[in-house]
Design a protein that fits this description.
Blueprint lengths: L3 H24 L14 E5 L4 E4 L15 H15 L7 E5 L5 H15 L9 E5 L8 H8 L5 E6 L11 H8 L10 E7 L7 H10 L3 H13 L3 E5 L4 H14 L6 H15 L4 H15 L12
Parallel strand pairs: 1-4, 3-6, 3-7, 4-5, 5-6
Antiparallel strand pairs: 1-2
């Protein structure tokens, strides 16, 4: 006759083994989902599943609508085209005033270069991958996924900055230039930020005041920006540049309004917001189109 105690012990042991197996399975590294890079020209990185989600329609502004940033536009487009053709190119940091088209330029440059290379052997091989600021520490996993792939990739992080006690910037430093493997030849990194050095001044001042060697401590922080070969500055626009932005949007969407009235309203709109920028210009255009009953088809993203 079976011993009831033995049955109980066996059931308890099986339960323990099942819990151990479940814990080991949860602790095991997540296998990266096989990416179909032919599914789209743009993707969003999801580190929790080590997967790339295709973006069928990128929220972007046409290059012709980006006004007042001609010099930085030309530099970034040239750098992007060189990279797409397999030539040497630099990581780029787009920094400066809010609403002046930093992230819009990155997305527009990607689309413009892909369109220019249409029909060439590089057509369709330039992909844009967005990674969120909070996921910077997962960059090594993303690099490992992209390294053996055939296309060329722009990894794009919008509004990149680091706060005090945030050490994830070290992952970005290693990926940009350092580390044993280094940055893959088929990957380039573009970031936008309101800060030129990505780190707040009080954070660097705190390092200076508490470190044994203040100079080296601050250098460790500042050197992050040095990993970007291109520093492209975006400054607040003049009144003429602001009005040119408004007029370009109005003409593009064929919004019927008398030019003097449009300029007066646009300037008043900017005054009430205390700023002139591409974003403010777009907000005025949306208001004017709504008042005049003009639908905005294929609406571009507000410049950021």
């Amino acid at each position: 006759m079976p011993n009831p105690k033995t049955k109980t012990e066996t059931a308890a042991l099986m339960g323990l083994l099942e819990r151990i197996a479940g814990a080991l399975e949860r602790a095991a590294p997540v296998s990266a989902a096989k990416a179909d890079f032919g599914a789209a020209d743009a993707f969003v990185w999801h580190p929790e599943g080590r997967r790339l989600s295709p973006v069928s329609r990128v929220n972007r502004v046409e290059m012709s609508l980006l006004k007042g940033i001609d010099r930085v536009r030309d530099v970034l487009v040239e750098n992007t085209e060189r990279f797409a053709r397999g030539l040497p190119a630099n990581n780029a940091l787009l920094w400066g005033a809010r609403g002046m088209g930093k992230s819009s330029l990155v997305k527009a440059a990607h689309a413009w270069v892909n369109e220019k290379l249409k029909g060439s052997k590089t057509h369709g091989s330039l992909k844009l991958i967005e990674i969120h600021r909070e996921e910077i520490e997962s960059l090594p996993d993303l690099m490992a996924l992209l390294r053996p792939a055939k296309p060329r990739f722009i990894i794009f992080c919008d509004d990149l900055s680091f706060d005090a006690n945030d050490t994830s910037y070290k992952s970005l430093k290693a990926v940009l230039e350092g580390g044993i493997e280094g940055r893959p030849d088929n990957v380039i990194f573009y970031a936008t930020s309101n800060r030129r050095h990505l780190l707040p001044r009080d954070m660097m001042e705190n390092e200076r005041s508490t470190a044994i060697n203040p100079g080296e401590a601050v250098e460790e922080k500042v050197s992050l920006s040095d990993r970007f070969g291109l520093w492209l500055g975006f400054h607040r626009c003049s009144q003429d540049e602001y009005l040119a932005m408004v007029e370009a949007y109005m003409a593009h969407y064929r919004i019927p309004v008398e030019i003097d009235l449009m300029r007066a309203e646009a300037l008043e709109w900017a005054t009430t917001r205390g700023a002139r920028s591409g974003r403010v210009a777009w907000q005025y255009v949306q208001d004017a189109a709504g008042r005049l009953g003009v639908p905005l088809s294929s609406t571009p993203a507000a410049p950021r």
